[in-house]
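Hi all, long-time lurker, first post. I run a small reading group and we've been trying to get comfortable going from sequence to structure in the token notation. Rather than ask abstract questions, I figured I'd post a concrete chain and ask someone more experienced to write out its structure so we can walk through it together at our next meeting. Sequence below, copied exactly:
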Amino acid sequence: MPLAEIKEYTELYKIGDRTLPQRKKLPARQKSKVEDQISLLLKTLEKLNYKLALIEMQENQFEKLP
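-- Answer (accepted) --
Happy to help. Here is the structure in token form:
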């Protein structure tokens, strides 16, 4: 979470419980951002695993040559 949002959260916390809905939005937004990042990383990992599998298949073909 960016420092500005942490400060905002802290200020809202100091105001009291009436700011609960506003405070809830801040970590909810951060959660959404993290989920998006995880999704992107998983897609990237999938592509890397695919490329590695292709390379391993090619390596195995060369090892089997007479």
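A couple of things your group might point at:
The helical segments are 3-15, 20-64.
The mean pLDDT is 93.
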